[in-house]
């Protein structure tokens, strides 16, 4: 799915680049057409202005330079003058008609150019909106891709952490719970109210059961169990912290009661004087269990 999203992202990026190139080409073409149109219009206007000046000169010439009586007396008759006037008037009318037609053509061309420019601007706006939509879709796709990658990484981290924790729990070794992170030394007294994890409670109760059913807590001699021991209150770890506890707190040993199979319980005469040599400290609860 991620590869598909990446392929779609690349396709969108290529389409975006193509649209950008087309936009640049359209802008360049529009600028060139506008420049050509402006140049053409300027030339046309200059030509029309020149024609207008010529016509104005021709119209103003009879008024500014009238025919002198000498020329009339030199053989020009009234008929020739009237003919010449009619010719000039017809030429003026023709030029006015030509000017009017040229102005109409110019107006139509300007309207057409304005419409073309409007269409080009609308097309440019449409392309810009399309480009913006493509950019927004690409950003949304990138965000979705990054979110999916983050969720995938977080899920993989959770699975790795769970697998690591399960391996630690299944190994049964030195288990360090994630809830007990304080470096304070462990207190094995029955009045301790510090909660431990269920895995440590099970291991502590199992180690205590194994030791109490095989050996005595004071002398270390094998003894028969009276009843199945259960985990002490608070779920303390005895096997791993008994030697450190005995080094820190030395308690006088109490003569234990040794239970033998088929006989009454007897008291040991020579208890272990050195509590360090004993594998576990003799607490009242431990002696009661033996």
Automatic annotation (TrEMBL):
<dbReference type="InterPro" id="IPR019152">
    <property type="entry name" value="DUF2046"/>
</dbReference>
<feature type="region of interest" description="Disordered">
    <location>
        <begin position="227"/>
        <end position="290"/>
    </location>
</feature>
<feature type="region of interest" description="Disordered">
    <location>
        <begin position="177"/>
        <end position="205"/>
    </location>
</feature>
<keyword id="KW-0175">Coiled coil</keyword>
<dbReference type="Pfam" id="PF09755">
    <property type="entry name" value="DUF2046"/>
</dbReference>
<protein>
    <submittedName>
        <fullName>Coiled-coil domain-containing protein 6</fullName>
    </submittedName>
</protein>
<feature type="coiled-coil region">
    <location>
        <begin position="103"/>
        <end position="130"/>
    </location>
</feature>
<feature type="compositionally biased region" description="Pro residues">
    <location>
        <begin position="272"/>
        <end position="282"/>
    </location>
</feature>
<feature type="coiled-coil region">
    <location>
        <begin position="2"/>
        <end position="36"/>
    </location>
</feature>
<feature type="compositionally biased region" description="Low complexity">
    <location>
        <begin position="181"/>
        <end position="198"/>
    </location>
</feature>
